[in-house]
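[job 0412] stage=fold_complex status=start
inputs:
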Amino acid sequence: MTDPLALDPVLPLTERSALPFNDEQLDHDERYRHFEEHVTGGGKVESTDWMPDEYRTAVLRFVEMHANSELMGVLPEREWIMRAPTLRRKLALTAKVQDEVGHAQLLYRVAEDLGKPREAMIQDLLAGKTKFHNVFHYPTKSWADIGIIAWLVDAAAIVAQQALRDSSYAPYARTMKKICWEESVHIMHGRDVVLTMATGTADQRASIQEALDRWWGPLMQMHGPRSDRAKDRDLHWRIKAKTSEELRQEFLGIYVPRIREIGLTLPDPDLALDPATGVWGYGEPDWNELRTVVTNHGPKSQERLDFRRANWDATQWVRDAILSAPRAAVA
Amino acid sequence: MTDDGGTEPLAMDFEGAGDGRERALALLLLSMADDEFVIGFSDSEWTGIGPILEEDVAISSLAQDELGHAQALYGLLADGVADDRDADTWAYDRPPEGYLHARLLDHHRGDWAATIARRYLYDTADSTRLEAVAGTSYQPLRELVAKIRREERYHLMHVQTWIERLADAGGESRARLIAALTTMGPDAGTVLAPLPGETALVRHGLVTEPFQTMDERWRDGVGVTFRRLGLAELPATADPASARSGHSNAFRALHAEFTMVRLSEVGATW
Amino acid sequence: MTGAAQAGVLEPWEVFRREKDGDPMKHGGSVMAPDSVLALHYAREMYSRRQESVHLWVVRRTDIHDLADLDLLQPPLDRSFKKPGGYVMRDKLAAAREQSGESKPRANKGAR
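[job 0412] stage=fold_complex status=done
writing structure:
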């Protein structure tokens, strides 16, 4: 072993001093400039790095909404776990919803390390102060919805999530790799449910088509209205890589042919690929509906929040008991 | 308890039912499968609303394990009974009174303390039963039980941790646990109540000890934990003759729920 | 930095390293050291003297609680419903395409 004293100062555990923005000697504006240069140049940020408040807040807001969406996204499908029509579907759906809870856990952990406690995030969600994705504000009316959600809602989500695997915030990027892998199984489960019904009885086919018609509007709204790339701070900080329209085009490009090839139709007469530009045209999504829904005025917003709140309150005693329980003796 | 169980509302079509071996085996498989099926449903009711996110994921895994065991046991039954019923038919296509799960599992989900109490009482009893089936003379069951027992080890570790924590936390936690144990206690022993056909099960080596012996061994083990935690001794089993029949309204409601989609299009593929 | 082990007692420290920005921490190996400061020095020597790491952690081995029980980690019954290989849709897809009169996906087809 080399003489340890010769190595002083060793690379500290909590800061990567090689990165200039971690240098405490510099003033804030200089650190900010170094940080911006690092991130916009494709550099990664770890939770222990120094970061400007604007970046920390932006990542936290983004990850927190993602975590909230996973947690609230559990509820529409959860209602059908008890109704799954075969043992294998029951297992697959339980496993899928379990994964969503697991994703919420992973994402809240990422957010917690940015400085906001999990309890505070859950309380803000329950109080309606923070948001969750539009698609989780709608009712699930039939087993066919379970297929459409697992196939297409998850597909629309995975298109966005794949683009996040390269996020500048490295703990988030790593988490997205794990999540994308798990989501890919959900899509297969969903597509299998849809295919089984599409090749089943006339009533089953009608039920799948009806579910698709109902979910198409929210799916088209899901990635959000077109935005100006230059003005999007999340893009600037490379928290995300693609605009909402890029994500929607990607989703349409992959899934419209897959939907149509199995004999299902889409309820948008303007939906068409322009062969010259390779761009999908579509009827303008109802952005007013999106705004209404994500501000918790959707058809199931309040019911789902009430349900989540009631269950959180009903299990408070368990959390209290575990947190106050004497710790097992440490060796 | 009679040996032939002739009034059971089940049509067992095992070959060579002459000495009662096949029928007794079918009832053993069905009772074990139904137990796992129903507790798997109770546990999966927590999926998405568990008290802690990490625990939510854990209880979902337990539910999937139990349902996986049920699926495998129904599969053995389907293999052994010479008709066209598959595992799903056995699992779903019976009226509520056709299910043979123990009355302990008839209680509705309840709070987290009820879930832990039910899991503790069931898992410890089931583990005792699995020990007695591990050496069964029916080879397919012996092979399956060897796998199931490996998975059930984690269940016991999980529930032991929880019952200790709920009991030791005192206050509301302990009070809720005691209330749950008081409600379910008289039904706890229904898991190990003698099955119709027990004589044949023992005579043919399908189980390696009578249910009475299993029950005593199980109570000894539970007693050690309960005394350490200062919990009251388990009462004797209430009405053991109807341990697996006459199901509750809570189960009927559950049954209506889990057959809803399947009945919406009878015979369809899902 | 805390390294409050008994002075003079060498004990094993497990080393985790990040190879490049954005990668996860991966276990590298271990070093013997009397405290966390020296453990970091030694970890640097053993796991990055050729610049093969950008970030190191050391964790006192006795602070690691391990689980390697295959009954718990690789339970023996079927879990195919959790894995991509558990969903084989080729036949259903062929049936659906045939039913809808298509032979293969037409990615460039316009509106209906």
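[job 0412] summary: The beta strands of chain A are 272-274, 279-281.
[job 0412] exit 0
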